[in-house]
TrEMBL record:
Residues 16-90 form the Protein CotJB domain. Keywords: Capsid protein, Virion. It holds the Pfam family CotJB. It comes from Bacillus fungorum. The lineage of its organism: Bacteria, Bacillati, Bacillota, Bacilli, Bacillales. It comes from the Bacteria. This is Spore coat protein CotJB.
Amino acid sequence: MNKNVTQTLPDEYYKWIEELQELDFVLVELTLYLDTHPDDTAAINQFNDFSYKRRVLQQKIEEKYGPLQQFGNSYSNAPWEWSKGPWPWQI
């Protein structure tokens, strides 16, 4: 993480976001691999494991800091939570 950027959130948030990005990278790579190797059950199992880890981490982040995505990709409690989390320029 670049410490020169003005930090407005706890280190934990940035650590979790970086972990989320790492999981997304793995999932993209596995998706590309599975596009050409659709019968590789080991890769499918890896994809499912990483997908589960990503959902768990996303849920943990959203419970503490608010939704990460909109348009139905993140759930919201009442009252509406979309404005609760940090804005993109705060990250």
